[in-house]
Amino acid sequence: MKPATIAFVLLFSLLAVSSTAEKFDFFYLVQQWPGSFCDTRQGCCFPDTGKPAADFGIHGMWPNYANCRRGNHHQEEDLAGTMLGEDVAAVFSAAGAVGRRGKCWPEYCDGGNALTPWAIRDLVKSLDQNWPTLSCKGGGRSFEFWSYEWKKHGTCSNLEQHDYFARALALKAAHNLTAILAGAGIVPSDTETYSLSSVSDAIAQATGHTANVECNRDADGNAQLFQVYQCVDKEGKQLIDCPLSMATKCGGDSIKLPVF
């Protein structure tokens, strides 16, 4: 077989693999405290199923790269050029087989794969309880929220629709953040403040893994615990230590956990 033929066979073999499996390194399982979502100047709206429980709710499970894809892209493009020649490597790059330029996470990977109610029919009750919408957009219909999360993040997860949601729910149930923080004496209050380090330490000690936390601001400008980013393996089954740190947006070590 001629070298050029071998190169193109290799090229399209790689493209075929790329089209069936999205490349990423880990998931962020993101959960938010509803009191912090609602206790802002913007406020919130309850879903059509009523006020959610005073419990951390899932925001999403997001595939992420351990390093920004922009840096990896050029390394892989150089490798393709060395193996296949510059002309073939250019085709390889244009086809997107080395990732999306400038993105540190994959998103919107399959526009034709819309979430169907039938696929998650047995999960709806649990999703209503554990993955509710608090946004005032969408008229309180949680299915629209789930559909958006699937479209943007789930289609990049290499999971079927049911597995994507079921695994997120299982992880939340296995590591209940509300109970973990309560066990460390961190409970919702309109007056108490807590140290950011005590929140991080409580989660790490209870789960065995580090997580990232994010604050937002209440209507008076006080920092409050908003979201917890737990890191999960590529199968969406096990927690791992977060390979990336992120800005907390807390502005200090003292934060609130408002009553919901």
TrEMBL record:
Lineage of source species: Eukaryota, Viridiplantae, Streptophyta, Embryophyta, Tracheophyta
- Please name one Pfam family that this protein belongs to: Ribonuclease_T2
Could you tell me the keywords of this UniProt record?
Disulfide bond, Signal
Official protein name in the record: Uncharacterized protein
The UniProt entry's sequence similarity note says: Belongs to the RNase T2 family.
InterPro entries, alphabetized? Ribonuclease_T2_eukaryotic (IPR033697), RNase_T2-like (IPR001568), RNase_T2-like_sf (IPR036430), RNase_T2_His_AS_2 (IPR033130)
- Asked whether the UniProt record includes Disulfide bond among its keywords, one would answer yes
Which region is the signal sequence? Answer: 1-21
Q: Where is the active site?
A: H59, E149, H153
